[in-house]
Amino acid sequence: MSRFVFLGVALALLVGGGGPVAAAPKSRPVVVVVDAYGADPTGRTDSTPAVVAALRHAKWVDRDRPVRIVFSKGTYQLYPERAETRELYVSNTVGADQRYRDKKIGLLVEDMHDVTIDGGGAKLVYHGLQTAFASIRSTDVTFTNFSFDYAAPQVIDATVATTGVTDGHAYRVLSIPAGSPYEVNGTHITWLGEKSPATGQPYWSGVDGLQYTQIHDPKAQRTWRADNPLFNDVASVTDLGGRRIRIDYTTAARPADAGLVYQMRLIERTEPGAFIWQSKNVTMRSMNAYYLQSFGVVGQFSENISIDKVNFAPAPRSGRSTSSFADFVQMSGVKGKVSITRSVFDGPHDDPINIHGTYLEVVGKPGPSTLTLAYKHPQTAGFPQFAPGDKVEFATKRTMTALASPHAKVTAVDGPSGMDHDKPLTTMTVTFDRPIPAGVEIGGTVVENITATPSVVISGNVFRNVPTRGILVTTRKPVLITGNRFDGMSMASIYVSADAYQWYESGPVADLTIRGNSFTRPSGPVIFVEPTNQVIDPSTPVHRNISVEHNSFDIGDVTIVNAKSVGGFAFTGNTVRRLDGPAHPPYTSPLFVFHGSSDIRIAHNRYDKGLNTSVVTD
Q1: 163: which residues sit within 8 A by CB, 6+ positions away?
Q2: Average pLDDT in the 180-205 region?
Q3: Other residues' Cβ atoms within 10 Å of the Cβ of residue 394
Q4: Does residue 15 have a pLDDT over 60?
Q5: pLDDT beyond 80 at 479
Q6: Do the beta carbons of residue 501 and residue 397 sit within 8 Å?
């Protein structure tokens, strides 16, 4: 079987140093078949070495010719021991922690152009802790037509199958999905992940409730963060077999949580679920992302990223309700356009979509045109934040407003590379094309790369079983959120911040349109605008030009809009309905609350009777 073929061409030639390829015009793609390198579509053996070999050969033939790497419609097992390894530093994960600097990557597209990974309907099953796929320093890359899952997720979805009382002592019986090995040790449970075939040791392990819990109600289709009562007042733990565990308690009251699922995990985000770095024109299309290990899809200092028709949801019949260890999609310092369309976001452990830049704090002034800047959140460090030619904005932390205009331009950077630890990982020295403006203070000023900010379209998606916010977005380029369905969000459905005190996620919005979406059973506020400025002045707002138009809201007694420091907010042509109907007592929560905002327009909306349509301002 030929490893390489050109589409529409039958003549094969041997090329020195490589496998057989076919002669064809350069405009026609080369096809690299992973099975020809020994990949096993039956799922009986580890396909990692074959997939690595196929991708390396694809890189070798990727010389001014498009390449398609194709799988068969089968199941492929991918273990981390022989996967590609790269030292990488990734936003919102483990920062500069050297224990986790080396990342295993199942499918690596690196330094390539015009590449398609076509799964052909395949299912990829990942083992251990590894990034499912990555595009690094590549252009025109498409991942399409495959499903992927992890054999042993780092989240334990424990369903309370039954509860009761025996001899005056309460008990629960837990049902554990396949792919979550465990051992019972006295009054404790040790969760083992799965064992590495190379070492015989589990890839990860933890005890009892691990470090974090959220609760899922399958009947109500809601998920929320809460304390974990499963391992309080334990008298005994018994393995009943068939992945069922009985926990007896010293207390007598029958637990009232039968049917609920306790989703338990550790907290270290050791690697991204997928990674797009220093790449341009990257697309994910027509995929099932059944689980993202350790974190979500991270786009970092890349340009033009599209996610279309991706199903972020647990695999059917898996017994699991979690499909991501944390966020689904995190875009950090991306420019061009971010497009997220026609996708499902179901079962994350953090926000489904978060699009932001990063504020770096001024920690030194080594020269008249030079600043020393620092990453301030421990989860983000180690990668370059600026490049020569980038424009920046200096902002005062207390007001979150710009210090100078026009914007300065970067001329030189001395800092981390994102690929090694040869230089300090949390600081960098940046030189600009003009003197540092007056008012820049050590510890009081942050700097944002405003070149690395995208326009955004989020359209036609479904958000459900989300314990947090639905969409977080902070970019000064145009943002359109349209035609989405938000159901049962446990926090704000749409959240706009600009944070220079905790997460340091930048920056202001200047053109945000929320149009034609449906918000059902939301928590309040449904739309939450909350920059971290400590000084609020309506004449110098942080955010500007937010329009909420032609949406439908089916709500309980909650606030729809709570907005701080916005100049120009319109709420027009929307329909607001009560979940319980107008025959019940009227709601008391005001629909609109504004702090330090100006130019507010609320008009031409339709409201059920019994809603508190007042507008609270201060």
Answers
A1: 170, 171, 172, 173, 254, 255, 256, 257, 258
A2: 96
A3: 21
A4: no
A5: yes
A6: yes
Contact between residue 478 and residue 472 where contact means Cβ atoms under 8 Å apart: no
Which residue is listed with tokens 């000023």? 445
Q: Retrieve residue 276's tokens.
A: 């797009």
| Helix residue ranges, H only, 299-382 | none
pLDDT higher than 80, residue 6: no
H or E stretch including 55?
A: helix 48-61
pLDDT of residue 26: 54
d(CA 72, CA 77): 13
Say if residue 1 is exposed, middle or buried (CB neighbours under 10 Å; 0-12, 13-18, 19+): exposed
- Which of 589, 555, 556, 588 has its CA nearest to residue 574? 555
Per-residue pLDDT at 2 exceeds 60: no
Q: Beta strand pairing status for 212-217 and 261-265?
A: antiparallel
Phi-psi region of 521 (alpha: psi -120 to 50; beta: other; left: phi over 0): left
Q: What's the confidence (pLDDT) of residue 572?
A: 98
3/208 Cα distance (integer angstroms)? 48
- How many other CB atoms are found less than 10 A from the CB of residue 188? 12
* CB-CB neighbours of 507 under 10 Å: 28
For residue 418, cis peptide bond before it (omega within 30 degrees of 0): no
The pTM (predicted TM-score) of the whole model is 0.95
Q: Which residue has the tokens 């008391």?
A: 588
Q: CA 545, CA 574: separation in Å to the nearest integer?
A: 17
Long-range contacts of 580-588 (CB under 8 A, 24+ apart): 580/556, 581/608, 582/608, 582/609, 582/610, 584/610, 585/610, 586/610, 586/611, 586/612, 587/556, 587/557, 587/611, 587/612, 588/557, 588/612
Question: To the nearest 10°, the Cα dihedral for 88, 89, 90, 93?
Answer: 110
